[in-house]
Amino acid sequence: MFADSAKIIIKSGKGGNGHVSFRREKYVPDGGPDGGDGGKGGDVIFEVDESINTLNEFRHKRKWAAENGEDGKKRNCHGKKGADLLVKVPAGTIIRDAKTDMVIADMSGDNRRQIILTGGKGGLGNQHFATSTMQAPKYAQPGQEALELEVRLELKVIADVGLVGFPNVGKSTLLSSTTNAEPKIANYHFTTLNPILGVVDLGDGVGFVMADIPGLIEGASEGIGLGHEFLKHVERTRVLIHVVDAAGTEGRDPIADIEAINQELMAFNPKLLEKPQVIAANKIDAIYGGDNDIIETLRAEYEPKGIRVFPISAVSRQGVKELMFYVKALLDEVQEPPVIYEQEYFPDTHNEQEEAYTVTISPEDGAYVVEGPKIDKMLGYTNIESEKGFLFFQKFLKQQGILKELEQMGIQDGDTVRMYGLEFDYYKE
Q1: 345-375 burial code (b ≥16 CB/10 A, e <16)
Q2: What are the pLDDT digits (tens) for 309-364?
Q3: How far, in Å, are 23, 86, 352 from residue 5 at the CA level?
Q4: CA 352 from centroid of its chain's CA atoms
Q5: CB 327 within 8 A of CB 239
Q6: What does the alpha-carbon distance between residue 133 and residue 422 come to, in Å, rounded to a whole number?
Q7: To 10 degrees, what angle do helices 387-399 and 373-381 make?
């Protein structure tokens, strides 16, 4: 089954914890700290793989995680870095944040490989915290937490030319007769559900990629049926070929069909109608006498608007060569590259914002209240009841810019600072 969308959960690796240890050698009874640093957690990396053309694999595997970094060890031995997770996707895959629907990455064009989630930094071992007054620090830094995110993968067909038309007008036959694609062809009155790509080879290295866009129905732009799933594939094409049944074998009105499809394109994204269009009046092999009113009516309606009409037979290939060379000429005129979406959502930055701290003044007693995930986390692994632990925590507050912010807010010696139920008297160093 062809899959062009999927939701998965991705998770980077947690950074390894720093280690607490001291040299213990013969004749060196009081060796210094030698705790090693933790290893960095693995990144989550998305990479384009040309051999893949669906998102089927992501329908069966929901969670994807990189490896955690190893904890540091004694004797200054650092923990090993966690292995990166390499996620291979088809070209044209858009990665969106599942909550906001904002674009994280568009794996199109030159963007073949991108780090989506960065692994957590490894924590520093206790050797980094030795000072002239604290020569035996008994604490180390924990590794940075992993990042976890639910993302929505969306595959958009990347093709130069899109074949559009109602079911059973001969789009699949035209694609198979002009390219290396092998779509299933039969006299079905329902539409192909899978976008199928093929390469049109015009010789001497000249050609283009053409896609059979699944048949559209009225109301598709409102999401009726699989409307949105179909219409999104049109966005990246540069030229549209309307395939209609010129023989009237289905009893359809070709002009009404073209207008209905254009109406759905307009409702979904008005810019889609700015793309060059050409009409392939198919099935002329089924017309008695070689000509009929349908082709003349189409020409009278659309050629004054600059839309050429080509009578063709996808079965006998009559007129197909002329159509393909004309389409190539249109492509040469349209120099604009396919749509590539800019990044809107930055997971690493978003995580930093979530871990930010706030400094407020309590209206009840005027105490300075400092809160935030980073503060809570630091208090959880620091023994502030010991003098060394308190000095370590004070250093953290200074590094994070919290002490500077308190001063900017006008804190004075002796004022109270409250952090998650703990209270301290502030005195400037």
Answers
A1: bebeebbeeeeebebeeeeeeebbebebebb
A2: 999 988 888 899 999 999 999 988 887 666 788 888 888 766 655 566 788 888 87
A3: 55, 19, 29
A4: 20
A5: yes
A6: 26
A7: 160
